[in-house]
Design brief:
The chain is built from 18 helices and no strands. Helix 1 packs antiparallel against helix 9, helix 12 packs parallel to helix 17 and helix 14 runs antiparallel to helix 15. The protein has one domain: MFS general substrate transporter like domains (Growth Hormone, Chain: A), CATH 1.20.1250.
Amino acid sequence: MSINQNKANEYFNWKVLLIISLSSIAMGVYRDGISSLFPFLQNEFGLTRTQVAFYSTFLYFASTIFSVFSGRLVDLKGAKWGMILGIMLVGFFLIVHSIAPNFIILLGFAACAGIGMSINPSATNKGITEWFPKRLRNTATGIWSTSFPIGGALAASFLPILGILVGWRKSLLVPGVFILFCGLLVFLIYRDKERVQNDLKKYNTKTVPFWKGFSNLSKNSELIAISVFGFFLGATEGAILTHFTLFLYLDYGLNESIAGLGFAFVQFGSISGRLLWGVVCDRFLNADRRKAFVILGFIFFLTTLVFGLFLKKMQPSITILFFLAFLAGCSGRGWDGLFFPSVTEIVKEEQVGVAIGLSVLFIRAGILLSPLIFGYIADLRGAYDLSWLLLGLIMFSTSIAQYLLFIRKIKRKP
C-alpha cells in the first residue's frame, strides 16, 4: 500500500471518528441535558431532592442491567448496528417524555431510554478499536469522550431557556428530533470495517456462549480492578449529573436558567478535562494513567472542600461559581479518555464489547447509587455541603488506593 493511500486511510479514520462522536453527542444531549430540567420537574411534581434522584436511578438501573448483554450484542452484530439502535431508543423515549402524565410514568420512560444508553459505550469503543491502531486510540478515545459533555453543554445551554419560554414538555421535542436525526446520519455515513464484517461472519458461526465468555472475562484481575475503580468514578459522575443544577437552584437561589448555565460550565469542564488529561498523561506523566487519576482526584477534593466549607460564607460572584463548576466537571467528569483505553488494552479485540459492557456495569452501578445517597444526605441537612465533602473524600481516597495497589503489583513482579 502506498504512502499516499495510508494517509488517505488515516484521514478517513478521522471522519469515522466524527460520526462515532456524533452518536455520543446525541446521548449526551439526553443524558446531561435532562438534568438541566430537574428544577422544572421538581416544581411540577412537588419532589424532594431524593425523589428527583430517582430519575437517574431508573435511567441507570436499566442501563446497568443491560450493559453487559448489549456489549455482547455489539460483538455479534457490529458497532453500526449498536449505535443506531441505541440512538433510536433514546430519541423516541425522550420525545414521549413530553406526554408523561405523572412522575411514575416518567421514570418508566427513563428506564426504557436507559436500555438505549447501555448500547452506546460498547458500540462506540468497538468502532474506535476497529478503525484506529493502538498508537492513535488514546487520542481518538480522548476526542470521542468529549462528545457526551458537548451534547450536555448544548442541551444545558438552551433547554432551561426553552423550558421557561414554552414549558419543559415542549422543550424536549427539540432534542428528541435532533437525536433521531443523528441516528439517520450514522445509518447513512458509518460502515463497519470490511475486515470486521468478515470477522463477524466467522465469529457468529463459532461463537463462544455468552456466559462462558463472560466468565472468562470475570477472571481477568486487571479488568475487575479497573472496573471497581470505575464504580467510584461513576458515583462521582452520577452525583454531579443529578444534583449540580439543583445545588445552584436550591442552595444559592439562582433561577432555573442561570442554574442550568452553571451546569453547562460543568460540561465545558468535562470537555476540557477529557482532552487535557490525555495530553498531561502522555507528555508529562510518562503515560502513567494512575498518576493522572491521583491528580484528578486531588483537584476534585479541593473543589468539594470549597463547595462544602467555604462557598456559603464567601457568597461568591456568578463568575467564581461558574469557574468552580468548570473545575468540578474537569476533575469529576473528565476521566473517560483515561479510563476506557485502559479497558480496551487488556482484552482481545473480539472481546472489547463485552469488556466495555462489564466496566460500564460497574460505572453505572456507581451512577445508580450515588444520586440517592447524595440527595438523601442533603435532605437531612437541608443543604448539599456535607454531601460534597463526603463525595470529594471518597474520590480522593479511591484515586490514592488505585495508585498504591498498582505500585504493590509492580513490586511483586520478578
